[in-house]
Specification:
By secondary structure, this protein is of the alpha+beta class. It contains three helices and five strands. A hairpin with a 2-residue loop joins strand 4 and strand 5.
């Protein structure tokens, strides 16, 4: 299993770089060329979401992106360190002046990612969250149908 780890300051201008790196590593891992635009868009959306959460929460920690090449599968995990609602608890920022707009943007971002990627796993807790996206790969020289 080969892993590339990318960490960047939570600034919107770094999202483009993350998209380009993700597409290059996905191509090398054997993800079908026809899917690479979806990889770029999904990673851009996930990274933009993480940047927004960090900026809104005034979190100085970097956004973390793991690009994981496994047998027959390529995964990208975008992690943030923003506190998220835990089951049975109140969402962070809930209440007067709460996170209404940010929550709508967050839900929209997750909907876009779900529309682009068939295999998505979202996890969140009080110490941060992650979005893990997976795509099938083919050995070098083999085309995916």
């Amino acid at each position: 299993m080969a892993t590339v780890e990318l960490r960047f300051s939570a600034l919107p201008e770094h999202v483009r770089t993350a998209r380009l790196v993700a597409a290059a590593v996905a191509r090398r891992a054997g993800v079908d060329e026809a899917v690479l635009d979806e990889v770029r868009l999904a990673v851009g959306e996930a990274c933009s979401r993480a940047v927004g959460l960090h900026q809104h929460g005034d979190i100085s920690a970097p956004v973390k992106v793991l690009l994981i090449e496994e047998e027959k599968q390529f995964s990208i995990e975008v992690g943030d360190e923003a506190p998220h609602a835990v089951p049975g608890g109140r969402p962070p920022g809930d209440g007067p002046g709460g996170a209404g707009v940010e929550t709508e943007e967050d839900e929209m971002g997750l909907a876009v990612i779900s529309g682009l990627v068939d295999d998505v796993e979202v996890s969140a807790g009080e110490h941060g969250g992650s979005i893990r996206m997976r795509w099938p790969t083919a050995p070098p020289g083999v085309l995916l149908a």
